[in-house]
Amino acid sequence: MKKLLFVLMTVFLVFGMLLTSCAKTTEEPTPPAATEVTAPEPVEEIVVEEEEDEEVSTLAEEITELVVEEEEVVGIEYKQAPMLDGMDLPPVEERLPLNPKVITPFNEIGVYGGTFERPTSGGLDNYILYTLMAEPLFTNTYPNLGAGAPQPNLAEKWEFNEAGTMLTISLREGLKWSDGVPMTTADFEFSWNDVWLNENALQGLPGAFIVAGLTPELTIIDDYTFRLTYQEPYYYAINALASLTSVQSIFPKHYLEQFHPDFNDDASWEDFNNELTFSAGNLGKVVINAWMTEEVRPGESITLVRNPYYWKVDTEGNQLPYMDRSRITIVEDRDTLALKCVAGEFDSDGMWLNAAHLQLLKSEEEARGYTVGFWEGVIAMGVYFNMDVEEEALREIFRDVNFRRAFSVAIDREDINQTIYNGFLEKTGATLTKSTPFYTEEAAQKWAQFDIALAQQLLADAGYVDSDGDGILEHPNGRKLSIYVDVSADHSMYVPTLEIMKDTLAEAGIEIILNPMLQASMGDRILTGDWEMRVWDTDQWDRPLDGGTGVTGLVGWQQDDPDSWSGPYWHPDERGLPLEHFADFQNAILIAKSQPYDERVANMQAANLLFADQVWIVGLGTYVRPYYVGPRMGNHPVRAVRAPDVASAFMHYQNYIKP
């Protein structure tokens, strides 16, 4: 396997002359003006406290609320990028909100200037831009998503009533769009009623707002405050809204209404929906993000320029972002993208590079001065049992926790680590990852040790025997532990991983027979239930409450209707009897979204431990995946937890180009 990783090195040598001759023209970074400032005293950015009987508006009943807000920044003098000097703009302090978001840079105060170069091997869609500069109402903790609760972002403050059914959100007063027009709740109301809930608009209401299939009621309180009222507790709304995969969480009413048929008789829905795409029309020039559209070259690149009204500053009062421009360039494929990174054509890539490029990246790291960073928490393969397989005898085996525990401890994860993952696998069982606050080391290591003797003992104690001496054990019902495992035939990691597992499982008396097939066929067999075991990606271990089909994504994992069964695809039909303890697990995740943060963490940690102990799925662990940090980059983390946000963890607005 390791030899295969040198394929790209051969390609690299072929193109060596091309790479070493590559050069690019960059703008010289300029340090912020050396004006003396009075730095504020260190403060905690988020304060969580209980306030009793607070009157939030004349529309509200008297309630006890959980309040989360930032402390006001005082005693700081604001500064702007030199490229803005001489422009016809109000002073920087008038362009910022009353209480700007203060960002502590990863390493140091940066310098202004330069163009940030980033590649993509996909199109220039909204998701690519989202990973560069998303600005949700609330934000996750970066670069480690599991470090704590979400923090204020566009929203300066939020409040729940005691029941968790009313969420009151306060925008930062004085926020402005990139054209200088104030952002207010009128923009959110327009986004809600005239975009998301309008059947003619192509962008529907983000699922993060919805709970139990029901849309909350929106109430506008004043220019900066609005309320969402749910029919049941939804404390998880803050976490869900912090993870919105949209480049814009609020749309600018003053700009878009000219294209909206309900506001302009000459407008068409085709024109309006076209304008909803960031890189189309001019919407990308009216933004709340760090950069706004400057030039779009379809099929080639998009160049963005700094937003002079951006509302974040560093701890010394320098208005962010540090970099004047950001350009995303399309590259035809991942391998070419890797070669261009090595050649120094780009400053950062955390999306497209993978383990196959590690040898290439490391081989030139010292000579070329870039850094190979690593994503943590990339989830390895999972092994799934069909708990509702039609064959009753096999179903009885899969539902035996002793068999599942024995199967797990009969896997030599360290051999797999060294052979398949080049030593980068963090060995665990099936557990939620470190990107969630629900991770515990106890759950991660449950039944994850390699111990053939323990596997044999577990099976012997449960009555499994080898009556004919062929080395394959039989269940007390007589069914041999000879099981077919569906696997994608063209998967470069899963097939060789199963070959390693096959040998050690045989020592425990379990025979697995690989059943390779096309990936599409595996999907078809899920629908019919015609499979015994399978290996597949483990989805949602890093976002367990955001929905999906993985370990604890709520979609398909909860039984909220007592009259009908619902479960994951590997347990879709209880066959008259659900898995032991599975209802307890379902109940835990069912109530999690209705719990305040601390209660939710305690509940989900317990649920995670239950899941790991029952070994309903066998996990191998998580591994690190390389990413590229160019030699010009400052304030770029070299370790981060990978999640759907991808490059958002780098907080590019506080990256800078080194002088």
Structural features, described:
The protein has 19 helices and 26 strands. By secondary structure, it is of the alpha+beta class. The chain has two domains: 3-376 and 625-657, Periplasmic binding protein-like II (D-Maltodextrin-Binding Protein, domain 2), CATH 3.40.190.10; 381-619, Roll (Dipeptide-binding Protein, domain 3), CATH 3.10.105. A hairpin with a 4-residue loop joins β7 (155-161) and β8. α18 (582-592) packs antiparallel against α19. The model is unreliable at 1-66 and 548-565 (pLDDT under 50).
Low-confidence stretches: 1-66, 548-565
Main sheet?
6 strands, antiparallel
Distance N to C terminus: 41 Å
Look at the helices and sheets and give the structural class.
alpha+beta
Q: Which overall shape is indicated by the principal axes computed on the Cα atoms? A: globular
What is the percentage of strand-forming residues? 15-25%
CATH fold name of the largest domain, please? D-Maltodextrin-Binding Protein, domain 2
CATH top level label of the largest domain: Alpha Beta
Average pLDDT metric: 83
CATH superfamily of the largest domain: Periplasmic binding protein-like II
